[in-house]
Amino acid sequence: SAMEETDREAVATAVQRVAGMLQRPDQLDKVEQYRRREARKKASVEARLKAAIQSQLDGVRTGLSQLHNALNDVKDIQQSLIDVNKDWRQSINAIENLKDVKDAVVQHSQLAAAVENLKNIFSVPEIVRETQDLIERGELLKAHRKLMDLECSRDNLMYEQYRMDSKNTHDMNLIHTYFGDMQKLSEELAKQLWMVVQRSLVTVRRDPTLLVSVIRIIEREEKIDRRMLDRKKQTGFIPPGRPKKWKENMFNILERTVSTRIEGTQADTRESDKMWLVRHLEIIRKYVLDDLLVAKTLLDQCFPPHYDIFKRLLSMYHQALSTRMQELAAEDLEANEIVSLLSWVLNTYKSTEMMGNSELSPEVDANSLSLLLSQNVVDQLLSKYMSTLTSNIIGWLRKALETDKKDWVKETEPEADQDGYYQTTLPAIVFQMFEQNLQVAAQISEDLKTKVLLLCLQQMNSFLTRYKDEAQFYKEEHLKNRQYPQCYVQYMIAVINNCQTFKESIISLKRKYLKVEMEETLSSSHASMDAILDIIAKEGCSSLLDEVFMDLEPHLNELMTKKWLLGSNAVGTICVTVEDYFNDFAKIKKPYKKTMTMEAHRRVVVEYIRAIMLKRISFKNAEERKEGAEKMIKEAEQFRFLFKKLASGSGEDTEGLCDIIEAIAEVIKLTDPSLLYLEVSTLVSKYPDIRDDHIAALLTVRGDASRDMKQTIIETLDQGPSQPNPNYVPIFKEITVPTLTVPKLLK
């Protein structure tokens, strides 16, 4: 059994403890001591056990007594309930008879409300009049206080009526009608409030207290709105005209005011003022910045923080501006107007002149504002701008060229630049126009600037082709009548100089407006423009030289004739004429002038040699040959002197050209015919482009060589070696020798 089990465990534990106490022999002496200690312990445990059992028994006794009492109480309650039940069944009929009392109570509460409001009810017309006066005097807070009292009276009456009999609309309407003027008052007051709100940015500077009063009134109404809505949730009743939503209304009015403010800044139309858009945008910028600064510094303080008035206004302005910009973008804008609009939208709006103004930060972060126009609209405007600009540039260039052509036929010389070179205004006009458009494009974006530059240079290319054709036509017209135009030479010089100016201007335009990495895309069009300009200049120079040689023709025809031998001064006249022309040619810019001088020198020498080869004279004897040869040498010296003078400072070497005339003179001068072959072969080795017919003509002019002799010399020459000067530019190949003998008209 459990008892035995416990006994066994107790014995085992005791054995263990005794074993623990008696582990060493010396502990046996203390056995008596241990026994006494254990006896004490045992006595103490038994005493504690007795006490515990005693208290347990006491508790059980108390519990039993309480249970007994509870049973008696339950019996009593049961009896009482039976009695109550009996009474209730008897009095149920009496309660039914109390309904009249209940109705009387409700009516009493309504009458109490009516009596309470009686004073107000009778004085409604008077209060309405007083309130009206207060509104007219602008004492809005007082007026509103009275209006609130009136509304409170009406609303309480209506509420009581509703509680008593919510279906009785007749009585409701009666109350409503009696308080009818009050509704007008509310509207009248609202009208005054909205006028203040519309002018809030002005009012806040002149009379901030008025604005604060208006906000207080709106706040009071908001509070009443909330109260009424709460009551509606509980009772289902809400007075007429509630909620008034004056706060929401105030924001709507502010929004309309902002829109009107922005729309109203357009004072002019394109018809009345070309700069209408620039002016319109500038006024908007100024107004918006001023308004926002006032809103931030003054308005913010008049409104409760939860209105977040500055943020709300900022968003209204942004929205109104966006709408206005879209309206403007939809109009049929001209190119310069598109630029004004885009520059304003993309740059001015977020710049320090407007939303980026330091006084607006940190409340306004210009970079976080969205774009006023969508990228799509911006792209459409840009493409419209580019197509308008293209046709404008074509038109401007055409007009510039037409105007320039009118100058070409004037009877006054063209103007000269500061270095004295003739020019016309054409390059300046063209590049000024390009510059203006590039500066304008740069206001919008880097990308547009590059596009406009490409467009300008592309149009420049086709313009130069037209310029070339016009210069050619100018020359042809002049050749029909050389007296006209009077200043042909000077204007042709101006055309040549313009080519140099155009070249320089293209380079400077690219340097100023083109990024280095874009250079590559333009190199081919640049090269083609340079090529056209070189052609125009070259053709111009050559037409001027034609002018010179047309004037020289009669004098060139006199060379190597009898008259010439007898002492005509044809070469003197030629030199004077060339020099005279070159006084004008001094107005040609360096690179072209240098070419002109060399070309003139060359042509004079060619014409001189051509005169020899024309065989207009055949010397009769050694005397005539000597005289003729010496005249030739003297004239070669005259040419050399002239062209040295003309080329002074440009340093080109044209010595060799006159040497050819002298070499030919030596052949003519030779007195010993047996040396003739040697002399001629020296000439040929120096100038290997001399042909047989040239030698034959030369021997004919010498006048003493027989046909056989000519034949022998020419045949022998073909085998000789040549040793020309490396700088020698063939000159004889341009000179033809007439095959038929020229009739000797010039004696």
Automatic annotation (TrEMBL):
Molecular function GO labels: SNARE binding
Signal sequence residues: none
Keyword annotations from UniProtKB, A to Z: Acetylation, Cell projection, Cytoplasm, Exocytosis, Golgi apparatus, Protein transport, Transport
Protein localization: Cell projection, Growth cone; Cytoplasm, Perinuclear region; Golgi apparatus; Midbody
InterPro entries linked: EXOC3/Sec6, EXOC3/Sec6_C
GO biological process, one term: exocyst localization
Pfam families per the UniProt record, alphabetical: Sec6 (PF06046)
One of the record's GO cellular component terms: Golgi apparatus
Keyword Cytoplasm: yes
Protein family according to the UniProt entry: Belongs to the SEC6 family.
UniProt function note: Component of the exocyst complex involved in the docking of exocytic vesicles with fusion sites on the plasma membrane.
Assembly notes: The exocyst complex is composed of EXOC1, EXOC2, EXOC3, EXOC4, EXOC5, EXOC6, EXOC7 and EXOC8. Interacts with EXOC3L1. Interacts with BIRC6/bruce. Interacts with MYRIP. Interacts with SLC6A9.
Name of the protein in question: Exocyst complex component 3
